[in-house]
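Translate sequence into structure tokens.
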Amino acid sequence: METYSLLREFADSWALLLLFLFFLGVVFWAFRPGSRKVHDDVANSIFRNDKKPAEGNDPKAHVKEA
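Result follows.
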């Protein structure tokens, strides 16, 4: 049996099955029970420091004039 034929047969059968099971595992992991808190925390992480203004008195202190 040629190497190409052997690899093609493996890819058409067992590799396809393994990749499908991996896909199902990733989907289950993303939607597993109890992960809502983690997803909400990540989604709201950009708003964590919105309670106070930026440091310094001048809001344009980082802008250099030409």
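Note: The chain is about 55% helix and 0% strand.
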